[in-house]
Amino acid sequence: MRQFASFALDTSNECLWRNGIQIRIPPKPFAVLRYLVENPGRLVTHDELLDALWPETYVQPQVLRTYMLELRKVLGDDAGQPRFIQTQPKRGYRFVAPVVDREWSTGEVKTENAPQALKVVRIVDREEELGRLEEQARLAAAGERQVVFVSGAVGIGKTALVNEFCRQVTISIPADIATGHGAEGLGTKEDYYPVIEALNQLCASPAGDRACRILARIAPAWLPARAREREVSSSAALPLSPQRTRGDLCAALEETAQEFPLFLVFEDLHLADTCTLELISELSRRHTPAKLMVLATETLQAGATEHPLFALKQDLLIHRLCAQITMAPLDKKAVSELLRRELGQETPPALDSFVYQHSEGNPLFALALLNHLIAQQFLVCNGSNGGRWEQRSPFPEIEALVPNELAQLIVLQIERLSPKEQRILEAASLMSVAFPVWAVAAALGQDRAETEDACDQLARSSGLVHRAGHDDLPDGTRSDFYAFAHGLYREVLYQRQPAARRAQGHTRIAERLSEMFAGREENVAREIAMHYEAAGNWQRAAHALRSAARDAQQRRSYYGAAQLLEHALSVSENLSEMDRGYMKKEICVELKTIRVAMNETRG
Predict the structure, then answer these.
(1) Interaxial angle between packed helices 448-461 and 437-444, expressed in degrees from 0 to 180 and rounded to the nearest 10
(2) What is the spatial distance between Cα 339 and Cα 357, in angstroms, rounded to a whole number?
(3) Four-CA torsion 32, 38, 42, 47, nearest 10 degrees
(4) Which of 70, 416, 512, 594 is the most exposed place for a label (fewest CB within 10 A)?
């Protein structure tokens, strides 16, 4: 047992403990963590990790970034201020926490004196989803093969749900569980990568001897290399098979699932190769009785119609050969419960609303925000008050609130898109969480119809945005509205742009607004001013605000006019000394007129 901070790495049982609570980690991320913990304090290069953990397989280094994000989520680590895993850019990783070898049972895991060690919670408010999975598992155990897709947004808790299901189901149903992961690749994906990973795990499990014998007899080409060596040493020879065939593997898996149920778990199936999808299709369509369940998680959104997984899933749903569980965001009450369990106490005032508002019910985002607030000391543990968590200072604005690990996760999603698609999303972020196509086209200086087609394509393929309606423009035409799947996506896209490009985009949008509402600029003067302010064009921002104030004055909305002019005064502070004096003098005269009118109205 290797201990670091409040964690204990159980290498014998391949699990992680925190304060006496077991945390389930998929095999590959656990192997990465184990290698780092066993080599503390020194730089472990990307090549060393890949060679150590994937000695017989070519894997893109991009995979390591995904696993590091998952480990940091489990450890509550911050890439910007790491307590455990430090990233050495373009080189590798270093485990920086002190590691101690201890001999103690999991029942004797002791907590540290400092209560900052947050309690790990398995899952919150997913009873309905767990119940459906348990029902599918019992059908599988009765000999009715099952294929189940668990769908949802990034961070919605798909892996947590599947891990909790596997933990619970094996208590009531003796079953073999083997897991494989879809892997993000920069080039061509390796055929059957998740399947091979699951077979390796199955053959290395306590029930592995029987599985190996069945594979050696029916599908020898699928036998993992280490198991192949063992089988060759214990028998005269293996039957020869020129290549891997899906039919052979299906038959072997079905025989393996005759005595005890076999659950094949495929994580991130949207990253898997086409051959793996074809195997799942074939497994679902065979009629041989088998106690077999295929459980797959996928991050595709409902509109991502061009991915081959979408076509497979739709076909299986139409023919009633699979089930789908779509995970929704947590409601405010569930987020409150998540935070309460994580902190081990009733939450400080305003924390629930703040985290729920900015996480939008996404569990990963909620916990990342909580850890960020703690790392930045907006929340502190008061030892003089019984070790309770308290709010030290007002919570920050959203611009300062995107935790590093979340930003990295979002950037990984963005970088899968083409440069043109990235520029479209960056231009969209200049508006708000919801954005009209005309504004994106204006910011990019391109044709609106072309931009509309590109936004529609993004909504169908990326899952980062979705159609939200349309807007009637002053010239009688319509412009579609889209919205980001989450407000944090918009913030990361906005912040990653060079300041000069942002300023240019804001200016173009403001100018386009003026053109669209020519003669009626006052109607959108606030919005025009907002874009000029964002672009740093203070002169034109103040002019737009004064125009809006005149419009408000004509409508006898004197209070609104006064607010606009006071805003214009604050904007004018950014002008040069000469321009500032002249501008402020004019605004003060206008304000005086407005206040006189206000007093007359009251009288």
Answers:
(1) 120
(2) 14
(3) -40
(4) 416
Nearest to 493, CA basis, from 423, 397, 557 = 423
For 29, list phi and psi in degrees, rounded to 5: -60, -35
Tell me which of 59, 74, 108 is where a domain ends: 108
Tally of domains within the chain: 5
Rounded CA gap, 4 and 15, in Å?
14
Strands 292-298 and 434-436: unpaired
Eight-state DSSP code of residue 393: S
Question: Could you tell me if 221 and 191 are in contact, meaning their C-beta atoms sit under 8 angstroms apart?
Answer: no
* pLDDT, tens digit (0-9, with 9 covering 90-100), for 40-85: 888 998 888 888 887 766 666 677 887 888 888 788 787 777 888 9
Task: Using alpha carbons, list the distances in angstroms from residue 183 to 196, 247, 267, 498.
Answer: 12, 24, 9, 31
Domain around 384: 343-404
- Tell me the residue type at 565: L
Q: Same structural domain for residues 159 and 291?
A: yes
Token output for 590: 């206008």
The Cα–Cα gap between 58 and 55 comes to 8
Sequence-ordered list of residues with C-beta below 8 angstroms from that of 377, at least 6 positions apart, any chain: 392, 393
Q: What CA–CA distance (Å, rounded) separates 305 from 369?
A: 32
One-letter identity of residue 388: R
Token pair 């740093």 in the structure block, residue: 536
pTM above 0.90, yes or no: no
Please check whether residue 447 lies inside any domain of the structure.
Answer: yes
Kindly state whether residue 50 falls inside one of the protein's structural domains: yes
pLDDT digits (tens, 9 = 90+) for 175-230: 889 999 887 654 456 789 999 989 988 888 777 888 999 998 999 999 887 666 55
Instruction: Please name the residue that has the structure tokens 């159609």.
Output: 467
CA 159, distance to chain mean position in Å, is 12
Residue 235, pLDDT > 50, answer: yes
Q: Which residues contact 287 (CB under 8 A, 6 or more apart)?
A: none
CA gap 70, 18 in Å, rounded: 16
Residue with tokens 């061509």, as numbered in its chain: 188
Residue 146 near residue 323, CB atoms below 8 Å: yes
> CB–CB of 309/269 below 8 Å?
yes
Q: Which residues of 27-57 are buried (b: 16+ CB within 10 A; e: fewer)?
A: bbbbbbbbbbbebbeeebebeebbeebeeee
Query: Do 394 and 433 share a structural domain?
Result: no
Alpha helices for 54-152 (secondary structure H) = 62-75, 127-141
Residue length of the chain: 603
* Angle of helix 208-218 versus helix 193-203 axis, rounded to 10: 130
Residue 192 lies in a domain: yes
97 part of a folded domain: yes
| CATH number for position 46 | 1.10.10.10
